[in-house]
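Appendix B. One record, verbatim.
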Amino acid sequence: MVTPPDIEAQILRYYHAEKWTVGTIARQLHVHHSVVRRVLAQAGLPRIGAPPRKSLIDAYLPFIRHTVEAFPTLTASRLYVMVRERGYPGRPDHFRHVIACHRPRRKPEAYLRLRSLPGEQGQVDWGHFGQLAIGRARRQLMAFVMVLSYSRQIFLRFFPDARMENFLRGHVAAFTAWGGVPRVLLYDNLKTAVLERRGEAIRFHPTLLGFAGQYRYEPRPVAIARGNEKGRVERAIRYVRDAFFAARSFTDLDDLNAQAAAWCCGPAADRRCPDEPERTVRDVFAGEVARLMALPDNPAPLLERVAVSVGKTPYVRFDLNDYSVPYTQVRRVLTVLADPLEVRILDGAAVLACHRRSYDKGAQIEDAAHLQALVDDKRAARQHRASDRLAQAAPASQSLLMRAAERGGNLGTITAALLRLLERYGAADLEAAILDALERGVPHPNAVRLALERRREQRGETPPVAVVLPAHVRDRDAPVRPHPLETYDQLKDDRDD
């Protein structure tokens, strides 16, 4: 456990200036006496008072000091095993306290102030800002941040994930907003930037290398665990958290990005430039724009390309949602090309389907023509589609069908009857009527129809009229011409004669 700096200062002052003993300091500061001894040993102060008692570890101290100097990060548990093998009889808990007093303090590192030329360098990183609820999905809210090292101009854009496509879209949006490209971009050891490092050898992500070649800038990774090398973007992310995102309300991701763009061009650009405090970031950036490289004439479209398999049903799964395809494509492997707004499904170069992209979870995005073709081709699909329609409109119908099946009811007849009630009364009334029938213990369409009639009468509404009647109902309700009764009078007269 790390001792707070103020406690260390008080320990040293009371021991060296006031001549307090270790026990007195520990009692007055409410710390353990081993903490006091460790602080004094690390400070190198001579012990005041009685000479220390001999300890079991004294004979092993030269070996321990030599080992921790050679391997400063060696754990106390591993060091205890090494000393134990050499004859140390003490317990491991006491050994850990003693070792803490003899570990050398890490020397503080000094850093040079890094400066860059105008338009020479930019720094890029992701920032995690919690989760974003979209329908039933909870997606990671990731902030793409790029900052110019010279002027400290910030670009901020939020995405629902940190995939490579969104990573590159953030680059393109930043270059477009600034009207140019810096010559060098510094990256942390992100998976979207660096795939592997072995010593000085670095293997970049090939997609990022191709993108950098198209925009003619040099991607450059920083050293491992050296956040100071890209401190400008690290401070920019902290500035975004404190000055922009804290206590901010927004309706959706588009609204948040619109507010972020306004903030980057407003308050973030009006702050003082750290290297030139007498000028604002906006003024310094205005002089840096001319030093940026020009944008390419033919920017490539940034599309997500994923191979997907079609199962028994005419849907492909992409990004937590199902998108319909023609039913003739089942049991095949297709290709999905997606941008932030649209999802296209291809078979080779032929486009099979085009859908609006959904960021929900478990949603079915359908083209009515795809499903209607399957319904027309297969009657079983028509019946299944009817039950799906009923389940989406009135979820309680599934419980009614299960209880009806337990009683041996005809599910096809019940489904058809409930669909007719759905067309007449609507989804909300049908759901309430089904729940009423289930509470009464009568899982039958007649009970649902009676419940609908009761609700209609309570509201004082007129009976609904079906627009299209089934054929057998039309035949049953055909007008019948009554037979003339005079013929029966003639029969009576003949019997009298």
